[in-house]
Amino acid sequence: MSLFKLMARNWKSSTLYLSVTCGGLAFYYDYTLTHDVMRNSCKKAAYYGEERLSDPNAPVRHITVILNPVANQRKSKKLYTKWVEPLFHLAGIKVSLVETERAGQEYNLMEIMSNCDGVAIVGGDGTIHEAINGLLSRPDYKKAAETIPIGLIPAGQNNSIARYVHQNHIYYRNQKEFLIQATMRLVDSCTQKFDVIKIEPLDSELKQQQKPIYALRDLRYGLYQNNFYKVSGYAFYQKYIKPLWLRIKPNGKPPKIEKIEYTDPASLKSITVGNVDGVTDFRACMMGHKKVRLSLGRNREYNPSDVTETKDVRLNLVAELDEKMKLSATEHDEGKEEEASKDNSKEKVDEDKFLIDGQPSQAHSVVISAIDNALTIFTGPHKIIIPKKAVDYRAR
Q1: Which domain holds residue 153?
Q2: Do 365 and 239 fall within a single domain?
Q3: Which of 78, 76, 200, 81 is nearest to 127 (CA)?
Q4: Would you tell me how many other CB atoms lie within 10 Å of the CB of residue 230?
Q5: Which of 134, 295, 334, 365 is the most buried (most CB within 10 A)?
Q6: pLDDT per residue over 222-257, tens digit each?
Q7: In a shared domain, residues 182 and 226
Q8: What is the rounded distance in angstroms from the CA atom of residue 200 to the CA atom of residue 364?
Q9: Where is this region: Disordered (predicted)?
């Protein structure tokens, strides 16, 4: 009782000491569990390495690592060196490390990538987006996507694409465990096929100037998505800024859905055109490998009767943006934004952006289609190893 009386008399100091103690215990608990995961993964990777050494005729796996050193506030290289690289070496994998030096270099590297058993992309959503587009822009993309699987190592801040790919196969408590588990999918050689969204300009002249853009996860357009991207940098205050920002900004118009075609059976997609909290929004989203109903939002622009059933559908969609909000890529590149927006406010031009896998891109009327099994990605269920014979390490 004297202890409780002492704490009651000095409640400020007691609260401070108790908070520090609880925080330290929580940190130690998380630290211990993360290192247990790393220890078990190292044992598993070492088993693969010993198995390869036991067979001198076994081929050596070669993985090319494309690392973005400035991702996650320049922490990505340190994360890779501590949590990813040791697993590759223990598994006996030959690693070729390439550090990018400029934006868009991942795109150029994947265009010429060859002579490897896989590519590990270490970075955030932007790094992965560039690498995927570089691979799919090749003339031989079908053969390249089949022979060069890619692994997504989440070393960025958001990592939404990696979470989407690994959502059904990886459990993690923090980013370090996510890095370890994603790396072990490359070590295990677990691969799965993934569909992608192909976005092409509707205008024939613009189509000749621009290459198609590919999205692994989704395509978004509208006032809501644009402002969501703007306030995403305010990590601690965005949940307060976002509703206020959307209230003071004017409401825009949704894009016109000109044509939707279906072919059964094929990929699974979801298109939403409508209102999100009173703000227009458009989203084309990959729904993994689940059968889902095609939804067109609350303010439905198009409601075909053949999507009332839950079924597999291939989607070819033409989305025509409002003429007042259209700005061609040529005008944008030549710096003629002011001439193109004489009749529009500055906010209107600023709103005219797509978010493709979370990355901003100039918006224009587009044709959206699905490509089945376009990518081979290292992901899948965890492999359980049963040693051929038990070894008593204590006898060594």
Answers
A1: 29-49+58-189
A2: yes
A3: 76
A4: 17
A5: 134
A6: 555 555 555 555 555 555 555 555 454 544 444 444
A7: no
A8: 9
A9: 326-349
